[in-house]
Amino acid sequence: MLSRVADTIYWLARYMERTQAMLQVIRIQYIASQDEPHYWGWQPLLNTYGDLSDKEIAKRAPHTPQVLYHLVFDRENAASAYRNIVQGRENARAVQDHISKEVWQSLNDYYHLIRHDAVAHQTLGEDPVSGLDALIQQGVLYVGTVQNTMPRDEGYIYLKLGKFLERALQTADLLRLNQHLFATENESVAGAPELRYLLYGLLGYELYIKTYQGHLEARSVLELVLYNADFPHSLIYSLGQLLRYCERLKDKSRPESYEHLRFLIGKARTTVAYSTLQDQKGEALEKFLAQVRSELLDITTALSSSFFGNG
Amino acid sequence: MPANTLLTSYQEHPQVWDEMFRAEGVRPEYQHFAAAIENLAGLEMTRKDELAKKLFMSQGITFTVYNSGEGIEKIFPFDIIPRIISNSEWLRIEAGIKQRLKALNIFLKDIYHQQFIIKDGVVPAALVYSCPQFVREMMNVSVPHDVYTHVAGVDLIRDHDGEFYVLEDNLRTPSGVSYMLENRSITYRIFPDLLPKSNVLPVKDYPALLYRNLLALAGPQTSDPTVVLLSPGIYNSAYFEHSTLARLMGIQLVEGRDLIVHNHFVYMKTTKGLEKVDVIYRRVDDEFLDPLAFRPDSALGVPGLYWAYRKGNVAIVNAMGNGVADDKAVYCYVPDMIRYYLNEEPILKNVPTYQLADPEHRELVFGQMDKMVIKRTNESGGYGMLIGSAATEQEMDAFRQAILGDPRSFIAQPIISLSSTPCYIDGKLQPRRIDLRPFALCGPSGIDIVPGGLTRVALKEGSLIVNSSQGGGSKDTWVLGG
Q1: How many domains does chain B have?
Q2: Cα angle value A182/A186/A190 (rounded, 5°)
Q3: Residue B382 sits in a domain of what CATH number?
Q4: B159 with B222: CB under 8 angstroms?
Q5: Has residue B258 been placed in a domain?
Q6: pTM
């Protein structure tokens, strides 16, 4: 497969996974902002998914429709959902002969949906949850279309690598954003609402309730998000999937490139797998998450230089 | 019973050859088709028209217009009424194009080697050397099997007397063949059963023939040659065609940045490392192909490609430097080339052409500018031209000044009143002007022309410009079997 094609497909997957993750988090944040008397504000999300200065953020943060516009629909914001979707579709257009026609059409529909005024109007003027749901649903349709129609060839492997790398990065970033919840020793209930919204944002609340029988505590939440192999948004799950798809590249790449990539993914996975909750108290968690993040970035660099010819 | 007015209400232009109707009624090649649509209610035709539009949109058969930063995709307008050509007429067109291409191919070899045609005084040296598309770098370069014009899209028009004329030979990177293929695949969806019953010859062999020719250009020492299609990328207006052809032939669609030249061999960068490339079907113009040999600011090409080509390490389709035979002033000499190289009389006529570098011609043309089409010799796509009958005094003056400044770059032709054909517009049949671009493939084993081509339509009422960039559309083109 051409390096450029692999690169384009990989980024297509990353853009779409990123869109999905951020829309879900924005949706939950919005619900929290409505339902929570001591709501903690939009600042952290504006920092993560926006390109505004601190002054601008302070100015906009109290106005929910403005925030939603900037994060989801703003064509000037390079990190908005709109720009992600446009980028994803542009990538798909460049590799149309390597993805199935159905995948192309689902991305094309997604693009037309977010360009259409109706959904922006609904999100900003009527019920934001319905508007965001419509977008999220189109994203889910894309995921299912990939699953159902893409041939399991090299292109599919790069789609999966992009997807799970992005997911691992998003999970790690979301944890970093919320690390104050895990910092304190005393397990008071004060952090409980925030913990619940963190789980909602990762689509893990139901699994948590089933696993830990309704008792919401920071340690268990961290355990689920880091180590639960059945939880599709846990770090260990994403890293396991990365390893799985990387191994399918064995006969499709140069031996030295493959060995290097396999080593780096194995290393990141080991970093997570052989850590314990005991080590993750206070500042140690921040250090640990920073290490995971940098090891994930090493993987992206290796892919870019040895497989996509950008080295 | 309400009379069906679809056919009877058709108003053809006087003084214009109509492809479907003549004074006595429907022409024989259209009779089967006319009988089939005669009994359709008007509503049903409209439904077919809508179905065609839907099929084009959902299959993404679009071209991109970049004018406001963000690309807008438009469908290439398609008219559902096919253009039909009888078998005997087609055989003449086919023979005429083959003859022309044979002569043009020899001309290109000659002009880049011994130049007998100049020495014998048939074509003036000044004309060839003043042509900006004459590529000096191609002098004495041997191309595989001496084939230069692998893919040609010859533009034909029909005058009011029914005679076909060649307007342009398009020997560089002609486009439109994907629309020929897609138009056919839409037609059999909207007119079920009509194609086999009318004995229409198929066009679907085009990708296979092209691929066969491309493979044949790889050196005999390569057992499993790699053929690629080189595209300028998704921002090119013909990108849809590039990706369609690559998909139909099962070859890689590459961009300049995917290729590198090492030791005068061309490689593509893959996830498995470098892979040697043997044949490049390029849809990038000459001047952008290699920044080291041609335009240094080109980001679409591959540095070093020219030397790899020159050494015979890679085959490039079409050959570099074909533009010299495509020049509209050189075009005047094609009938002479046919006589000189083949010792035959031309089968297809040229449109009479005045070279404005000649003072006598210039005077003649300036005297009757309102009856002339004036064109730049090296432009295409309907740009850089003036149609005298529709031009203002001011526009004519501007052209006069430009011609006097650089007479070599202009030619003039009498206005040919293109033939018309019925189009289904606003619920009724209306005459619109058309041309015809059949696609010819030259390979080591000879010249093949799939029976058909792209019929382009000037959708604006009364317009003579059929180019898609200027509001043109297209029709399916049926060639009937013998």
Answers
A1: 2
A2: 70
A3: 3.30.1490.270
A4: no
A5: yes
A6: 0.86
End-to-end CA distance of chain A: 17
Domain boundary among A118, A150, A182: A150
Q: Which residues of A touch B272 (CB under 8 A)?
A: 1, 252-254
Tens of pLDDT, residue by residue over B186-245, are 898 888 889 998 999 999 999 999 999 999 999 888 888 999 999 998 888 888 899 889
Compute the count of residue pairs across chains A and B with CB atoms less than 8 Å apart: 45
pLDDT in tens, B402-459: 999 998 889 999 988 889 999 998 888 899 999 999 999 999 999 999 999 999 999 8
Measured CA to CA, the distance from residue A267 to residue A177 in angstroms comes to 24
Q: Mark which of B317, B335, B368 sits at the end of a domain.
A: B317
**In this complex, is the C-beta atom of A66 within 8 Å of any C-beta atom belonging to chain B?**
no
Provide the number of structural domains found in chain A.
2
Two tokens at B60?
A: 């993404």
A94: nearest CB among B60, B234, B273: B234
Domain hosting residue B212, numbered range: 205-317
ipTM greater than cut 0.85: no
Residues A111, A107: Cα–Cα separation, whole Å? 6
Same domain? For A190 and A270 the reply is yes
Q: Domain containing A223: what range?
A: 152-311
Residue of chain A whose Cα is closest to the Cα of B60 = A105
Q: Under 8 Å CB-to-CB from B343, ≥6 apart: which residues?
A: none
Structural domain contains residue B11? no
Backbone phi, psi, residue A214, to 5°: 80, -10
Closest-CA distance, B243 to chain A, in angstroms, reads 7
Domain shared by B209 and B311, yes or no: yes
Residues B258 and B312 in one domain: yes
